[in-house]
Amino acid sequence: MAVERYDIAIVGAGPVGLLLSTCLARWGYKIKHIDMRPVPTVTGRADGIQPRSLDLLRNMGLKRAIMANEPAKVYEVAFWDPSEGSKGIHRTGTWPSCPNFIDARYPFTTLLHQGLIERVFIDDLQKNGVKIQRPWRITGFSTDGVDKQYPVEVSIAHVDGDQQESFRTKYLFSGEGARSFVREQLKVGITHKDPIAHVWGVMDGVVRTNFPDIKMKCTIHSDAGSIMVIPREANMVRLYIQIASSTDADWNPRKTATTEQVQETAKKIMAPYYIEWDRVEWYSVYPIGQGIADRYTLDERVFMGGDCCHTHSPKAGQGMNTAFLDAQNLAWKIHHVESGFADRSILKSYESERKLIAENLLNFDSQYAKLFSQRQPSAGEIGHVSKTAQETGDAEQHEDNDFIKTFKASCEFTSGYGVAYNENVFNWSPSHPAKSPLFLSEKAGTTTQRPGRILTPATVTRVADANVVHLEQEIPLNGSYRLYLFAGKPSVTKGAIADFAAGLQKKGSFYQTYQRSDVDNVPYHEHHNPHSHFFTFATIFAARRPDIEIRSLLPEVLARYFDHVYADDVWDQRVPDAKAAAHAKMGLSETEGGVVVVRPDGYVGCVVKLVEGSGTVDALDGYFASFCTKRVGGGERAGL
After folding, report:
1. Do β-strands 459-462 and 5-11 pair in parallel, antiparallel, or remain unpaired?
2. Rounded Cα gap, residues 334 and 352, in angstroms
3. Which residues form the Phenol hydroxylase-like C-terminal dimerisation domain (predicted)?
C-alpha cells in the first residue's frame, strides 16, 4: 500500500494551527490537520482580538464572519482602586484601549469566544478541501532522510487507540499548546522568565450588578484583592480573579478554589457594588508563568508556534494574537520556498523574527502581571502623596500609579502595531547586501516607513470606480509581495515611471525572472497577479481622481493593474496640511514619489526613491536577489 504524502502536517486546531492551515490551503497545498479534541472549543480559552489582528482577518476576508457573531468591543479601559478609609473602590480614570496616537482602522479590542473564532477558520478550510481529523493525536515522527522531498515520517493514532496511521510530509507543525508532544520529542527546553508568583481564576458568565463599568474592560484593585473585567458576547462577562500570591504567608502555586469561593472573593473586591451570577459558562484556575521555547525549529522541517513556544498571562490579551502572527509569518515563507521563489535558508528567519517578538511580549507581560497583582494605593494615600508632591513641586510624576503608567506606555505593543522585526534580508538596512544610494531610511529621515514594521494605513480613491478605499487592504493576503508605486505628480514623474516600467520588463529583472509561465492565458479579470504569483503592483498618483487617465499615464505593464490605480486625494487628519496625504504619511515627496515594497505579511521590506533611468529597478533587483532562488539583476545573494 502506497504511503500517503502531504505538503504539511499540522497538529492542533487552535488559533495558530488554523490560521497556518487556512493560508496554505488557499494557496493550494495538501494538508493533514489533526486535533486531539472531538470538537472545536466549546467554552472559555482566548477571547481577545487586538486591532492589528482584526486588520489581518479583514485582509484574509474573514473579518465579516467574525463580526457576525456580534462580539463585544472595548474602546476604553477603566481603572478602579481602593477608596479612602477602606470604603471599597472608586474609579480613578479611563484610557483608550487603542489611543489616538496609534494609526488604527479599528481602535478597539474585539471580545469573542475562541470557539466561534475557530469555526470561522474551519468553515473556510472546508471550502478549500481541508477537514480537521478528530480526535487524533501524534504518536511519533522522525526526519529520516529516506525521502528527500518528503523527509518527515509521522505516526498518529485515534485517541481511543483503536486506529493508527503513518504518512510522510515535507513539513510538520506543532500548534498543540503548552503541553506539546513535538516539543518534548525534540527535547526543546522552556526558559522561564519568572517563577510562578500568582494563581488566578477565570470565570465566564452572565451577571447582574450595579457596577457601572461592567460593559467595559476594567482593572480593579481593592484591599480585598484584584479583578479584571472583560465584557463578552451574548451578555457575558469574563472575570480574572487573583486566588493566591507568592507574598501570601501560606503561598501554594497549586492552590485552587471552587466557583463559589471565587464568586465570594469577587463580591468582596467589588464592594460597595453588588454582583450576582445568573449562570456560569466556564471556570478554570491557572498559575501565571512566563516561559519561552529555546528553539522554534531545529531543522526547518519541524516547526512549532503559538502556546507551544510562549506562555504568559492572558490578561493583556496577547496569546491568540501572537499565535496568529506566528502562523502568518511561517505560512508565506513556506509558500515562497515551495514555490521556488525563495531560498530554503529564509525559513531560519521564522524563529529569529517571531522569537524576538515573544521575548518582548514576555518581558512586558511579566511586568504587567506583577503590577496587576500588587495592591494599589488608596485614594487617601494618593491624596497624601499628591499634596506632598505639590509642596515639593514634583506633582507631575505622581499622576498615575505604576500599573496605569505601564498600561499606557504599552498600548502600541498590545494593539499589535508595536511589532518590529530586526534587520535581515527581508528588512532592508544599510548593512543589507543591496547597496544602492536610492534606498530610503527612517533613521536618515528620508521616509517614515521602517523595514520590519507594518505599513502605515492610508485612505485613497480607487480610480476605476471612484470608491474611497483603505490602501493597505486593497491587496489581499495571497502570498505576494506588494509593491506600492507612489507616483507623485504625473507631470513630474512621467519619465521616471516610463523608465521604471521598462526596467521591469528588462531581461533578468526581478519581475521578468518570476513571470508566470501561463502569462498569455491569465484570465481577464485577474486583478492581483496577472504577471507573477509573487508580485502585485499598486500605483498611487498625487492627483485628483478626475485628472487621472490610467492608460494615458501608465505604460501597459502597470496599466494592467487597472483596479490597483489610486488617486491620493483624500484628506487625513494626521497630516492635515498635506495635499497628498498617503504620500505624506509614507514620508515621500508629494511631487516625486517613491516605491514601498511590502512583504506578503504586510510588513515593510524596503523603500526606494523613484528616479529616471534604471536606478529604481536596479535597487529592487538587488533587494530581491538577496533571497531569491534565481539570479536577479546583478544582485548579491545573502544568507540569514
Report:
1. unpaired
2. 15
3. 419-631
Tally Cβ neighbours within 10 Å of residue 515. 16
pLDDT digits (tens, 9 = 90+) for 300-332: 999 999 999 998 776 666 889 999 999 999 999
Under 8 Å between Cβ of 220 and 89: yes
| 483 contacts: CB under 8 Å, gap ≥ 6 | 535, 536, 537, 538, 595, 596, 597, 598, 620
Region label for 490, one of left (φ > 0), alpha (ψ between -120 and 50) or beta (otherwise): alpha
The pLDDT tens digits of the residues spanning 262-294 come to 999 999 999 999 999 999 999 998 876 788 999
Please state, as a whole number, how many other Cβ atoms lie within 10 Å of the Cβ of residue 506.
Answer: 15
Say whether pLDDT at 205 is over 70.
yes
Instruction: Compute how many other C-beta atoms are within 10 angstroms of the C-beta atom of residue 301.
Output: 16
DSSP state, residue 629 = S
- The residue whose grid cell reads 531569491 is 628
Closest to 20 measured CA to CA, from 274, 318, 303, 216: 303
Cα(262)–Cα(242) distance, rounded to whole angstroms?
9
Q: Which residue stretches of 447-603 are H helix?
A: 490-504, 510-513, 550-553, 556-559, 581-585
Residue carrying the nine cell digits 516605491: 595
Q: Which three cell numbers stand for residue 5?
A: 504524502
C-alpha cell at 175: 500548534
Contact present, 331 and 24 (Cβ < 8 Å)? yes
Question: Does residue 603 contact residue 427 with C-beta atoms inside 8 Å?
Answer: yes
Report DSSP state, residue 161. S
User: Cell match 466549546: residue?
Assistant: 42
Q: What are the C-alpha distances in Å from 460 to residues 51, 63, 472, 540, 544? A: 21, 21, 10, 8, 10
Q: How deeply is 171 buried, as exposed, middle or buried, from its count of CB atoms within 10 A (0-12, 13-18, 19+)? A: buried
CA pair distance 155, 605, nearest whole angstrom: 39
The count of other CB atoms within 10 Å of the CB of residue 283 is 18
CA angle 406, 412, 413 (to 5 degrees): 75
Question: Which residues make Cβ contacts (< 8 Å) with residue 161, sequence separation at least 6?
Answer: none
Q: How confident is the model at residue 619 (pLDDT cuts 50, 70, 90)?
A: very high
Q: What distance, in Å, lies between the first and last C-alpha atoms of the chain? A: 41
- Does the bond joining 530 to the residue before it have cis omega, within 30 degrees of 0? no
